[in-house]
């Protein structure tokens, strides 16, 4: 770019700034009731009635100067509210009681003098940033061309509302977006910036107990609203929903100029990411929109964006994708999707919802007992979409994908439609998605066999519905339902003759489509229904109550068991696993003082699980050449069992000073596990006895965050997580004479002690984090296979995991972004024979993982992004004779290109841009047992999408 063009671009950039400040600074009231701050701001000018402007430094009144530092704004004051009478008490302080004036008895209205900008010429606001100041937070609205923005503001109840006439929030790639900051300071509930309609942007500041005190002025940064806290000496402060820093730092993301939402809820309370004493990653709606342009698989998206998460298996199954070497707990809106019956054929926890139904994903790395059983690796909380505009908005997206050689049958398609809106105290959202996957081919152009419940030849549908009711200013009731169904056509099988060829071979596709009779094709279904109620002020606490129902059911691909275990009574069959769970959560966040909060409550759940075999007619199958499967019955694979769980918890957080925050908590957990009295195993043909067991345990956590500077914070954390042994593993193919009540040692769950140290840095154009962790459990849950697809052992010996995680993002200019993550982890278990620690299988410990991206706004509205994934080699488990083969490294690069076109956005995604031939980590280990399972990954794949909203 030429130098003169560069300077022109820089001169054309402008911003509108909204500043939220606290009331600790002294302020004065002008004659017309507009507040003037005693805080000095260079070149700052206040908008004054009758077009006069008061200089903050000199406190003098003057006519509007013809200065290049000021905009010419015309305003007038109107519609004052009636004075507060003594016989009508309100929670509004009087002027003689405090240093600050109360402005809730007046309403300031600004009206634009120029007519609204026509819709077609709307000023585009390309980004919203939150920057800390010594008084609060500056929320900057950036425009692409430096255009003037017209403002009209008013107030209703406790809401200050400013409408930007002739403006629209749209990111550089053309997508609309919304900004929201929750509890930026005491007395202020939230600040939001949204598109009101096609020609108006609305800024809303909500006071917790009273109308916020607002001052307006203009300086080089743009139009600024300073919002003072409504907390006063005569009105005791109400503790925010979460104790946060008074000046939360900005949260720029790697993929967008827009900030991420400043809070996470995977810790059960809304917490500023910078105040959480552990490693947290938030994947925003904008990042999801970007990643789905090249790949819609959540496993792969999270692997590419979350440090500490293992390599993707690129299939429905996620049992080998661990977080810091241990299984994560997956939630949808706080409802557990993970189940105790999860095993190698049913772990599809990250394939129970389509990305189009997701608002954001929060990943808390490291053991966490905050939601109960199962979070020994961390928590992945998937938050569903929510309405964000005060009008009815529709959005649609269509797409098509195919491998690079565009072979017949390789085409897939995608369609999504969503509608949302708010009207009065009611809001709603509905979203429907259908995603069809074609036939997969590897980089060498060969068909990839169907195995491991891959996405091949499948069609998924997802429906999300949400209805919310605002019951006054402090109460809310919301019902949410999400249904996901993934149906697959089993059009072929593995060619088992591959193993007869000398040397290492890749898996080969056997063209043998199967027609299911009296049964269905393979499928994966998930349903979550939940009812949520919140009350912001009950017993000096914020109450949250949730009731939920969750069902998952998976039917795997058909298999010929005669190949693996010829003596088994099971010949032709497939696994069908079902889990149902209902439960409730009740929690209260109590403000013990202005800087001390107590979170306490209880959880209860009841989960029923079972696994069966569908049995098919052997003669009919053989006579048809293996192409017809007629169901004739069923048998037990995993005996039905029930887990009842009661948890009691409390969590204390103390903001000891502006720079130091301490937290700690305890949780008591009680489990009751019951298995049916008697059953016959469908694979062994043997009879077994069930029974009942009860166990309990207590876990603790403690953490500290110290802010060395406004930009740098250090944190340390000790956390315990716990997990019941996988009951389904215990009940699958047990030894002859097995008795659950007598032979299973369930005196205690697996308890994991984790230690973590980290440092975070947040600057305007640079963000970085570094963390190291070590975890230890005296009882492990590692699974070791004797032969692939046959017997396995659950190793209960002590286990330790450790590693380092690094993330760096840099925005050298407004048009360039780049960043990288690094994950290195290891794990060992104690060998019971030697007492020495040996390497853990590669199914649980991922090799070194490096990711990187480079993004550029090539032209206005046209963005391009290159991103890469490198998985290193790991031989330790092979050398320790744990794995059958060592893991080789591989490299994958993707391209994402998007451009604004018409009323929407057109994007092109290229997965595996270099068309590299590789096997992912899981399939490499599988191949070590038998070449028939050496499934290569997809070759270069193109995806073309178009999205628009109205």
Description:
- There is one protein chain.
- This protein is mainly β and 950 residues long.
- The chain has 2 domains: 3-238, no CATH class; 300-500 and 512-656 and 665-949, TonB-dependent receptor, beta-barrel domain (Maltoporin, Chain A, Beta Barrel).
- Helices cover 5% and strands 49% of the residues.
- It contains 8 helices and 52 strands.
- The chain has a 22-stranded antiparallel beta barrel.
- Strand 25 and strand 26 (426-436) form a beta hairpin.
- It is globular, with a radius of gyration of 30 Å.
- The model is unreliable at 1-120 and 232-262 (pLDDT under 50).
What keyword list fits this structure?
mainly beta, 2 domains, globular, 49% strand, 9-stranded mixed β-sheet, Maltoporin, Chain A, 8 helices, 950 residues, disordered N terminus
Instruction: Give me the CATH fold name of the largest domain.
Output: Maltoporin, Chain A
Quickly count the helices: 8
Overall geometry comes to globular
Using the 3D structure, state the CATH architecture of the largest domain.
Beta Barrel
Topology at a glance:
Elements: H1 3-11, E1 14-21, E2 27-29, E3 35-37, E4 45-47, E5 52-55, E6 61-63, E7 123-132, E8 136-143, E9 150-156, E10 159-165, E11 167-169, E12 179-185, E13 188-197, E14 200-207, E15 213-219, E16 222-228, E17 263-264, E18 271-272, E19 280-283, H2 285-291, H3 298-305, E20 329-332, E21 335-336, E22 358-365, E23 378-384, E24 393-403, E25 412-423, E26 426-436, E27 458-471, E28 475-488, E29 493-494, E30 509-510, E31 515-517, E32 523-538, E33 541-555, E34 559-560, E35 572-593, E36 596-616, H4 618-623, E37 628-655, E38 660-680, E39 687-707, E40 712-723, H5 727-730, H6 740-743, E41 750-762, E42 766-777, E43 782-785, E44 792-795, E45 799-813, E46 816-830, E47 837-839, E48 849-859, E49 862-871, H7 876-879, E50 890-901, E51 904-911, H8 921-929, E52 941-949
Parallel strand pairs: 1-16, 7-11, 20-23, 31-37
Antiparallel strand pairs: 1-8, 2-3, 4-5, 4-15, 5-6, 7-8, 9-10, 10-14, 12-13, 13-14, 15-16, 17-18, 19-22, 20-21, 22-23, 24-25, 24-52, 25-26, 26-27, 27-28, 28-32, 29-30, 32-33, 33-35, 34-35, 35-36, 36-37, 37-38, 38-39, 39-40, 40-41, 41-42, 42-45, 43-44, 45-46, 46-47, 46-48, 48-49, 49-50, 50-51, ...
